[in-house]
Design brief:
The complex is a heterodimer of chains A (553) and B (694). Chain A contains 19 helices and 6 strands. Chain A has helices spanning 3-34, 40-49, 59-82, 98-109, 119-122, 125-155, 165-191, 218-227, 248-272, 276-303, 306-312, 324-337, 352-363, 374-393, 407-433, 435-438, 447-461, 476-506, 522-552; strands at 57-58, 161-163, 201-204, 210-213, 399-400, 403-404. The longest helix of chain B is centred in the C-terminal third of the chain and has 39 residues, at 568-606. The chains are: A mainly alpha (553), B alpha+beta (694).
């Protein structure tokens, strides 16, 4: 079978798998967040937390709960790293240095999983599964709760209540993430992913030296790494490591795991706003962009760049031979489109335009289909923006899902679309302006070096977590700057989205008629695709020119 | 029950033709120049964040141009200032049109004195009009100007309201009823009335109108504020993209000058819509004024675009304001032609639409040529008056009369005639069917008798059905309001094609209907003129009061139609929509423009450092300088080019939201993407000839 046929077959299989679970999972999640009943486990959790599960929260209380919860999570994760050597299962590793501990805590709480360190040489088993893996569940659940609160903002009317964060959080973990993770983990083990608590095997290599192969609870962390669009690998090599991602099948399954919740959430959205077509439209926008980026990345990689790579047939440097360009490009597009940040190839080694495609894909704001929850609320905010302009063009004060977009909503949307680009551009500018920060660049003097920095801030600013490589990020400047960017770009938008949800929930719905802008048709889907590409593209175009474009053209 | 006559309702196009001042005249650019220069004051500019950024950039570039002088830099500086100036010019031109109207209104507001009555109405005192207080009573007689807004409390008079409406035909104002309101500055032509002043000095209708058309009281409307927020945030985003560029460029070994960065920033921020936004708003209000509608707030104009339900009064809106003769029914012993002849004779002096319709019917149906008064030298015409409710003519010894059944019967009695029972039956039959009977009688040689009855019917205006179909396509529901009984109302509603009707409507019914619609989240628009309409007018989201109505109605509504033409409600909705469409389309255009500007400027900045980037120079612009300058010039010129569109509003055709979006996205989105590529290339071809640039 030719590479192209195999590649297309993989994509076809992936789409078929997603299509198969779309309705059941989307419908199941809608029921999870609309059900009145608590399970016994949940009731126990609420009693433990001292939470009244029937209490409906305003947007402000909901937001305060998220911030408080995440702050506590971050402190615990920080302490766990700082006290590692005094705790069991440390594998004899020392305490994590404070700058790195801050960066890592911020990274995992913000669902980014940017890793400035080599995990197998830094984190013991306890930190891995009691700290990082726990946050992989919780930070993912936080993202989903925000999306659900925004959906409720649309579906409810004349109320200031958006639901209960603690209930949404608990249900996200207990009813959605955990069950899928258990099943998915077993599937991964069956596919050959490692799962043990061993410290490492001493093996003799063919050249006669000895090498330590570290083991650990890999599969259990691998599954939530993808499912919760986290991306933080058990090993430094992440999903390129054969213990994390042994073969083509596991590769495809991991891609599926990254996409499954963000994709199915559009169904949940459609069901909860009582108009399934709206969910299809949002999915349509996500799918269009994802497909376009997948084929662009594949095209650039397969055709290679430069005489040497073309002579070799493709740009294989930095890619695993067991995956090839198609499966690598597919993984890369998915990981950058879902804010996962797991990698099965070195993005640094991609052709300039291929790497640029991954960079630009993140710059879209992680909405194709984006992180769990975050992708949906990000896309819905952009939809509000598109509706505002499109709605004017049909001669009505704009409305989306029966809710009017007034100055207050526009203020929140405007702040939302300002936050991430500002953080990324200012962060990159400061880094490029500081001598010490420039010293971390590997490919100095070439546009590739600038791409390393831009990629790092873009990855942090969009809570992606993948690294371009090259850049030595475990230095005080990057640990601090990227840590701050990750936290601000995660929680400022969350507060804004919840405020937006509160604002929509208070409104009385506007009746839909012939004069209403249809937001479920192909025309609107096209317009929203244009808004996503143009609004984000225009912001970053100058920076992209000096990075990947300068290198690749 | 109803007949259809060829009397079309005015289409928007026709109305637009009536308002030539709504079109853009290039001369206005020159006359508005002083105003535009005055607006350069930063304290004024800061209200428009997008253009304020351009002004700050222009100031910075000017200062730097002195230290780092070159032909290129000075060209950029000049065009940056022109960009600001063009934006101010757009606003000044829009405001200028209002100023001309305000001047006309001021002339009407000349210093007048008032004849104030004492409380017991016995003595009169001459006082300045400006000193009148609420509740004061003033006497106004033929030839005098009414000193202030108020209600007629005594008498009937014809009033020339051309000062505010531009309509030269006088109108009747009388005490009691719905035609009691008079406006200060208008002139009494006949009779004597006593007016009770209802506004304080300085707050009169004319004062408010002057403030409105001048734009002095103009406040940003809710949607305009929302759009401004979006534009401000886009400006900040591009500011970020620009200020972070120097450290990126420095790494590439490129040293970017401040002037070049300002040029890039100005090209990227949404200057096109930023420059035209307030002009669009002013022009929207102005389009209403052109149609003789005064909106008391811009909010109401926007709400008009959102209206879901239109409550339309049957009379004057759906049917012709007056009923029309449809049939002559002779009594025994009289032929139809005889009756038609008498009816026509007696109506020659009746200038009311009903009277004219009788003459027309006699001509079309019985071939009776309309006789001019000159052909009847011995005739004495009896004018129709509100008191006699009859008109007629005395020719030699014959007297012919036509009028309301009661009035004509009384006349027959007074002439010594008798009333036939058959007459009563015909009259009652017509009344029962919802029509209006008019009795024709004559008196010859001392014998007075009734000749027959004229049947007046409601006539649905031509084109209403199409209008309502369009409304439905736009998602607007039309409800006909009428005092008629269910049966009559249903027949007219069906014929006119409205979605629903409210028969035997009382003001309370109207109010209840509005509240019901609003509870469902719908926005309601209505017209009204009576005092009992006031609560409903206030409740409606768009309440258009007729200028002929009472002060209470005018106070309660948020718009006043000076022509007192209820059909205009439909046009008001269209103007509201057009205002929003213009904003949305130009915003789309403005943002889409940026793509081409990047392709012009970025290769110009960086192709020297990274030669590969020259591939982005897809327009093949002459040089780096010419590329940047061309983009700046295009950016400035596009503002001027779009001023006429901003003032006129984009073309609006009632259609479904999908169709409208497709059309506007194609023209302003795709057009906005492509046109700057062409424009910048053309400008580049020209300026590459300039020494020091090319």
């Amino acid at each position: 079978m030719s590479d192209t046929a195999a590649g297309l077959l993989q994509i076809g299989l992936l789409v078929a798998l997603l299509a198969a679970v779309y309705r059941p999972l989307g419908g199941y999640m809608a029921r999870v967040y609309t059900s009145e009943k608590d399970t016994r486990v949940e009731r126990g959790t609420y009693r433990l937390l001292g939470v009244d599960s029937k209490a409906d929260q305003t947007w402000a209380v909901y937001a305060r709960s998220i911030i408080a919860f995440s702050a506590v999570s971050m402190i615990l994760l920080y302490l766990l790293q700082r006290l590692q050597s005094h705790l069991p299962l440390s594998l004899g590793l020392p305490n994590v240095e404070q700058g790195l501990a801050f960066n890592t805590a911020a990274s995992f709480v913000a669902n980014t999983n940017w890793q400035s360190y080599s995990p197998e040489q830094t984190m013991g088993h306890l930190v891995q599964f009691a700290g990082l893996a726990v946050q992989n569940f919780l930070s993912a659940a936080v993202g989903i709760t925000v999306a659900i609160a925004l959906i409720r903002g649309f579906s409810r009317s004349k109320t200031d209540r958006l639901g209960n964060f603690w209930v949404d959080l608990t249900r996200s973990v207990v009813r959605i993430l955990l069950p899928i993770a258990v099943v998915g983990g077993l599937v991964l083990v069956a596919m050959g992913v490692v799962q043990n608590l061993s410290g490492g095997h001493e093996v003799a290599t063919v050249v006669g030296q000895s090498q330590t192969l570290p083991g650990g609870p890999v599969a259990s962390q691998e599954v939530i790494k993808e499912l919760g669009t986290n991306g933080g690998g058990f090993y430094n090599a992440n999903s390129a490591h054969p213990f994390e991602n042994p073969n083509g099948l596991s590769n495809l399954f991991e891609i599926f795991l990254m996409l499954v919740i963000p994709v199915a959430l559009t169904r949940t959205f459609g069901l909860m706003v009582k108009d399934k077509r709206q969910g299809y439209a949002i999915l349509g926008v996500m799918a269009t962009l994802w497909t376009a980026f997948t084929f662009a990345a594949t095209l650039f990689e397969v055709n290679g760049a430069g005489t040497a790579t073309r002579a070799a047939g493709a740009a294989m440097e930095g890619k695993e031979t067991r995956f090839g360009e198609w499966a690598s490009a597919l993984f890369t597009t998915t990981t950058t489109g879902t804010s996962t940040g797991a990698v099965n190839a070195a993005h640094d080694s991609y052709t300039p335009l291929g790497g640029g495609t991954a960079l630009f894909h993140m710059m879209l704001g992680e909405v194709t289909p984006g992180g769990v929850g975050a992708g949906l609320y990000g896309m819905l905010v952009l939809a509000v923006l598109a509706v505002f302009v499109a709605g004017l063009m049909v001669g009505r004060t704009p409305e989306y899902l029966k809710k009017k977009i007034t100055a207050r909503e526009m203020k929140l949307v405007s702040l939302y679309i300002l936050t991430t680009p500002s953080l990324i551009l200012i962060g990159s500018a400061v880094a490029m302006g500081l001598e010490t920060a420039r010293a971390s660049i590997f490919n100095t003097g070439s546009p590739h070096g600038f791409s390393e920095v831009l990629y790092a801030f873009t990855s942090a600013g969009n809570n992606n977590g993948s690294a371009f490589g090259g850049l030595s990020a475990n230095v005080p400047f990057y640990n601090t700057a990227l840590g701050l960017v990750m936290l601000l770009s995660r929680f400022l938008p969350i507060v804004l989205v919840l405020a937006l949800a509160g604002s929509f929930a208070r409104q009385q719905p506007v009746p839909v008629n012939e004069g209403t802008l249809p937001t479920h048709k192909a025309l609107f889907v096209t317009m929203l695709v244009g808004v996503v590409v143009i609004v984000t593209g225009l912001t970053y175009f100058p920076a992209l020119t000096l990075g990947p474009l300068a290198e690749g053209l | 029950m109803t007949t259809l006559l060829k009397t079309p309702a005015p289409t928007p196009a026709q109305v637009a033709k009536k308002a030539p001042s709504g079109l853009f005249n290039p001369k206005m650019l020159l006359t508005s120049l002083p105003d535009a220069l005055r607006k350069l004051d930063p304290r004024v500019m800061v209200k428009n964040p997008v253009m304020f950024v351009v002004e700050v950039g222009a100031v910075a570039s000017t200062i730097l141009a002195f230290t780092d002088s070159s032909v290129f830099v000075w060209w950029i500086v000049v065009w940056l200032w022109l960009t600001v100036l063009f934006a101010n010019l757009a606003e000044a031109v829009a405001e200028g049109r209002g100023k001309a109207q305000a001047d006309t209104l001021r002339r009407a507001k000349t210093e007048t004195s008032a004849r104030k009555l004492s409380v017991d109405r016995t003595t009169e005192q001459e006082v300045p009009a400006a000193s009148l207080q609420l509740g004061d009573l003033v006497v106004v007689e033929a030839g005098q100007v009414i000193p202030g807004d108020g209600d007629v409390v005594e008498g009937v008079a014809s009033v020339d309201e051309s000062a505010i409406t531009g309509e030269s035909a006088p109108v009747i104002r009388e005490s009691g009823g719905d035609r009691s309101a008079v406006t200060g500055g208008t002139k009494v032509l006949s009779d004597r009335i006593v007016v009770k002043i209802t506004t304080r000095p300085g707050e009169s209708f004319i004062d408010r109108m002057i403030a409105l058309v001048e734009g002095a009281s103009r406040q940003k409307t809710p949607n305009e504020i929302a759009l401004n927020i979006l534009l401000a945030s886009l400006t900040i985003v591009f500011l970020m993209a620009t200020v972070t560029l120097p450290p990126f460029a420095a790494y590439a070994g490129v040293n970017l000058s401040i002037v070049v960065l300002v040029a890039l920033l100005v090209c990227l921020i949404p200057t096109t819509i930023g420059a035209l936004l307030s002009a669009i708003g002013i022009a929207g209000m102005d389009r209403l004024v052109q149609r003789n509608v005064l909106a008391m707030s811009g909010r109401a104009v926007e709400a008009a675009g959102d209206v879901n339900t239109l409550l339309l009064d049957k009379t004057g809106t759906i049917t012709l304001g007056n009923r029309q003769a449809s049939e002559f029914i002779p009594l025994a012993g009289v032929t139809e032609t005889e009756l038609a002849d008498a009816a026509q004779l007696s109506s020659l002096a009746d200038e009311t639409p009903e009277g004219r319709s009788i003459v027309v019917l006699a001509k079309t149906q019985y071939g009776l040529r309309e006789r001019t008064t000159g052909e009847l030298p011995h005739a004495t015409f009896v004018q129709f008056t509100a008191q006699t409710r009859m008109s007629g003519v005395d020719v030699d010894d014959r007297q012919v009369r036509k009028g309301a059944a009661g009035a004509v019967n009384a006349w027959i009695h007074s002439q010594g005639g008798k009333i036939d029972n058959a007459l009563g039956e015909v009259v009652d039959g017509i009344s029962a069917s919802g029509g209006t009977p008019l009795v024709v009688a004559d008196s010859k040689g001392g014998v007075a008798r009734a000749l027959g009855v004229i049947h007046l019917k409601d006539v649905v205006k031509e084109g209403m059905r199409e209008r309502f179909d369009q409304m439905r396509a736009m998602g607007i529901r039309t409800v006909m309001i009428t005092g008629d009984n269910q049966l009559t109302a249903k027949a007219i509603a069906e014929e006119a094609g409205v979605d629903d009707f409210l028969a035997e409507a009382t003001p309370e019914d109207k109010m209840a209907l509005i509240k019901k619609e609003q509870e469902g989240g719908r926005l309601v628009a209505m017209t009204g003129d009576g005092t009992n309409d006031a609560p409903a007018l206030a409740q409606a989201d768009v309440g258009v009061a007729m200028n002929s109505g009472t002060s209470a109605a005018k106070e309660a509504g948020n718009m006043v139609d000076l022509d007192s033409n209820p059909t205009k409600l439909i046009e008001i909705v269209e103007i509201g929509k057009q205002l929003l469409i213009t904003r949305g389309s130009l915003t789309t255009f403005s943002i889409a423009n940026d793509v081409a500007k990047y392709f012009a400027i970025l290769p110009a900045l960086f192709a020297a450092a990274y030669p590969g980037l020259d591939k982005l120079n897809i327009m093949r612009l002459d040089s780096a300088e010419s590329a940047i300058l061309s983009a700046v010039i295009f950016n400035a010129l596009v503002i001027v080019a779009l001023v006429p569109l901003a003032l006129r509003g984009v073309q609006y055709k009632p259609s479904s939201a999908s169709a409208m979006l497709r059309r506007n996205l194609l023209i302003y989105g795709v057009g906005g993407l492509i046109s700057p590529f062409i424009g910048i290339k053309l400008i580049d071809l020209l300026i590459s000839l300039i020494p020091g640039i090319g």
